């Protein structure tokens, strides 16, 4: 029809900006610093990953604040590599053999070699940040990576006596290297923009917090397939949806649930019982309400920085995520 415009596809828009501003070239330069052999597992995983939201949302936000593109590209490339490294290491730790329908890097290059490559690439990335942005930025970057790694272990120690807010802070630490950290890195050389950069960082934190809660729902409702369903319950990991349920549960139901929480393996009867509790306490609906709240908060703040088209891209990204999460129960 005349006058119609094609709907924005967020992933495609962000990838176009990624290549347009040559963030890929900068990332390749940094990865290549570790040498041809050591860079192979990292390059292999880097090329598998389609989505560039984690890389380009901080780029768009910082560019909107008038920060020079040479700096925003360096920060975007840094996030791009750190996300790739996190995927490489997670696959080793979780013994995941496939990544985007292809063998995980460690299955091709070996665990020791792949892990060693990730360590070398992290050192090269931090060195690049120190040289091109500032030594203080490299420290903040390193601290965010370490905080994220600690948060994984800290999460395992949470019991149901924790608050939802404490869990949220744990999730935020895990995502810091692609939310708060990029903004704080830039603030080391743009101190006059620190307040606005911090506000933009909080918007990213809030957005990714919603996504983490969505991942929790995936585990409970089998969004990505039922083979790994209830892995959090089996391992005794307290997540935000489970904490929401716990706060509403009657004592008898708590006792029943604790008989299977952390059990390791679940029988069919166990799974039926868990499903009945999830339904009884409306865990899916309450979690979705919380995700919508987080996305709404993030969108409101993003609107203070992004132009009309970019804001539409972000809101569409949120809508697509909500649609995906909603499908977990359909």
Automatic annotation (TrEMBL):
Essential cofactor(s): Mg(2+)
Stored SUPFAM superfamilies: Terpenoid synthases (SSF48576)
Signal peptide: none
GO MF terms, alphabetically ordered: metal ion binding; prenyltransferase activity
Pfam families reported for this sequence: polyprenyl_synt
Gene3D superfamilies, alphabetized: Farnesyl Diphosphate Synthase (1.10.600.10)
GO biological process, one term: isoprenoid biosynthetic process
Keywords from the UniProt entry: Magnesium, Metal-binding, Transferase
Family, as annotated: Belongs to the FPP/GGPP synthase family.
Protein name listed in UniProt: Polyprenyl synthetase
Originating species: Candidatus Roizmanbacteria bacterium CG11_big_fil_rev_8_21_14_0_20_37_16
């Amino acid at each position: 029809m005349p006058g119609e415009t094609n709907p924005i596809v967020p992933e495609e828009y962000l990838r176009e900006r990624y290549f347009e501003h040559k963030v890929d070239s900068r990332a390749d330069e940094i990865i290549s610093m570790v040498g041809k052999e050591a860079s192979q597992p990292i390059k292999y995983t880097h090329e598998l990953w389609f989505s560039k939201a984690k890389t380009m949302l901080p780029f768009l936000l910082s560019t909107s604040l008038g920060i020079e593109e040479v700096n925003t590209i360096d920060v975007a490339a840094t996030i791009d590599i750190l996300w790739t490294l996190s995927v490489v290491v997670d696959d080793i730790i979780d013994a995941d053999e496939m990544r985007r329908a292809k063998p995980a890097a460690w299955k091709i290059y070996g665990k020791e070699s792949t892990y060693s490559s990730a360590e070398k690439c992290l050192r090269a990335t931090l060195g690049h940040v120190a040289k091109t942005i500032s030594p203080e930025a490299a420290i903040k970057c390193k601290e965010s990576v370490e905080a994220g790694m600690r948060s994984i272990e800290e999460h395992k120690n949470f019991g149901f006596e924790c608050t939802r807010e404490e869990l949220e802070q744990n999730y935020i630490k895990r995502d810091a290297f692609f939310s708060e950290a990029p903004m704080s890195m830039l603030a080391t050389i743009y101190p006059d923009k620190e307040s606005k950069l911090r506000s933009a960082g909080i918007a990213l934190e809030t957005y990714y917090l919603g996504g983490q809660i969505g991942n929790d729902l995936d585990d409970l409702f089998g969004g990505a397939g039922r083979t790994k369903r209830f892995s959090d319950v089996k391992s005794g990991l307290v997540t935000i949806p489970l904490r929401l349920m716990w706060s509403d549960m009657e004592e008898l139901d708590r006792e029943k649930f604790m008989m299977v929480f952390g059990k390791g393996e679940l029988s069919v009867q166990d799974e039926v019982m868990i499903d009945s509790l999830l339904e009884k306490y409306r865990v899916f609906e309450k979690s979705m309400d919380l995700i919508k709240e987080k996305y709404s908060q993030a969108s409101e703040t993003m609107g203070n920085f992004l132009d009309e088209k970019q804001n539409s891209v972000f809101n569409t990204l949120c809508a697509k995520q909500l649609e995906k999460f909603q499908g977990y129960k359909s």
